[in-house]
Write a structure and sequence with these properties.
Distance between the termini: 22 Å
Shape: globular
Number of helices: 0
Radius of gyration: 13 Å
Strand content: 35-45%
Amino acid sequence: SMNNAQNIMEFPQFKNTKLNKCLDSDNVNEGQNVKINNCSMRPTQKWTYNLNTNNFTNPNKNLCLRAVSTNDGSYVSLNKCNTNHINQKWIYNTMSGELKNNITNLC
């Protein structure tokens, strides 16, 4: 859904349709890698995407998705949100459903 006032897209879950698993922040602390789990409507699986800052945020933890490195196969962690950090900038493709890192061009 869309929160037009703040230009924020809201995702009750962010699913890998091939695996039928959802991105989850359950038991993930700042600086740790996110994981995938069976999909549920838990708050740890809710995400928001800010079209102004390109941050992908877990509102339950108030932390942002960050590519740990710019290498292929890099992990993705949850970190304190920083609108200037290039590793926290993502492009969400509404057609394909891909979330791509702005700098590395990796999904």
